[in-house]
Amino acid sequence: MKRTGILGGTFDPPHLGHLIIAEEVRQKLGLEEVWFIPSYTPPHKDDAKARPENRVKMVELATASNPYFKVNTIELERAGNSYTYDTLAMLKKSHPSRDFYFIIGADMVEYLPHWHKIDALRELVHFVGVKRAGYHLASAYPIIEVDIPVIEISSTLLRKRLQKKKSVAHLTTEKVYGYMKEKRLYEKG
What we know:
Layout: E1 2-9, H1 16-29, E2 33-38, H2 52-63, E3 69-71, H3 74-78, H4 84-94, E4 98-105, H5 106-111, H6 118-121, E5 126-130, E6 143-146, H7 155-163, H8 174-183
Parallel strand pairs: 1-2, 1-4, 2-3, 4-5, 5-6
């Protein structure tokens, strides 16, 4: 079985925290690849600020330098609410020789009991919890804990800085930053 990490999210925009999480988990669990899966409409969040095609392009730019990172657009192709169970059921069907490790932050570990079809989902995937300030990894569900360097960067932080016309250099990759500036993403008005 190929060991494949899954890092889902809105990636609105992607930042260095996403890349650090993916690489740390990949190395510590000996994963062959990590697939970044941008969501169409996450059921637990407001709508994304950037259009899907812009978010995919930014994730492609962010991950291009790491040969172990791949971008998978399954949720964008499906459209509608992006439930993890539906995505993983489709992935397991189309990739039966892969063992999936779903990477989530500690904030999502606490929310697991509320996930759509959580009991069926845990049969499809291994949950990997990464630490996040202010949250604990305690759960009734089996979680593989991975310590990572604490990086307090969020997509919300980047969007707020860009709205105020402040730099986000060194918070995301140069290519993503250049793309956001070129497309004038997240600017007010």
